[in-house]
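Fold this sequence, please.
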Amino acid sequence: MVIAVIDLGTNSTRLLVARVEDGRVEQLERRSTVTRLGQGVDATGRLADEAVERVLDVLEGYRRLIDERDAKTVVALATSAVRDSDNGHEFRETLHERFGIDVRIISGDEEARLTFLGATSARADRDDPTLVIDIGGGSTELVVGRPGADPDFHVSTQAGSVRQTERHLDGDPPSADELGELRTEVRGIVEEAVPAPEREAVTRGIAVAGTATQLAGIARALESSDAPLHGYTLELSDVRSMLERLAGVPLEERRQTPGLDPDRAPTIVAGAAILVESMEAFGLVEVETSETDILHGAALSALTTDIG
């Protein structure tokens, strides 16, 4: 069965078209475009008109890809930005009228469950208590469990790369005080959201979504390596070094960083800081990056639930 999944995230709009059979997801098409749907939502409580237009422009192309691949089921998920906005309902109506897409606004809990399923479903090593870190634009999901089973613990936090950038990073480059305030806020959010026993039980970490794969891309470029991003190991010491380097240069210079998508440059500092604070809070010296995430989890769930 060919299934299309659209993720209307706070920072990016993503598409997966896949053939799903017997619990396996075979990727046919995958796209990711930075659209910054969550622009200003933290301050205004509304989706900005220009942000909505950016998403609509991208979805024109995605709709063509979906039709070309003859996907029988289309699942569209909206997360933090739409969840937190006052005009999210109008946005959903627009997508239905223009593209025939019915968007489901999912809770942070559901976002965490689908992300964990997507990140761990194909793993054979299923005994270790595993943390999945999903750093989005408006929220970060922290999910603990054993691969192949429902999570034992999950929480959606108000720490996101767009949200924290808009709250704290005014300077170009950001000042040490700005970055310090951001990190202090994130550290408090994580420690308050996840009880110490849950954090101490974790023995392994998997980081999904744009921040993790972008940092893996930077690390790979520094090593002149052609290792795949999926499964790449990020050492805490290296993430700290990349955070220092990225925060120490102006935005235009940051855009030139080898391995970094220039469109991710405005929010990568906050994203890297969230990853550092999350790893430190859980006592992890390394995490594995994964390109299977909520898109894959939603595709798998579409066969067995009413998510579509």
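The longest helix spans residues 49-68. The mean pLDDT is 92.
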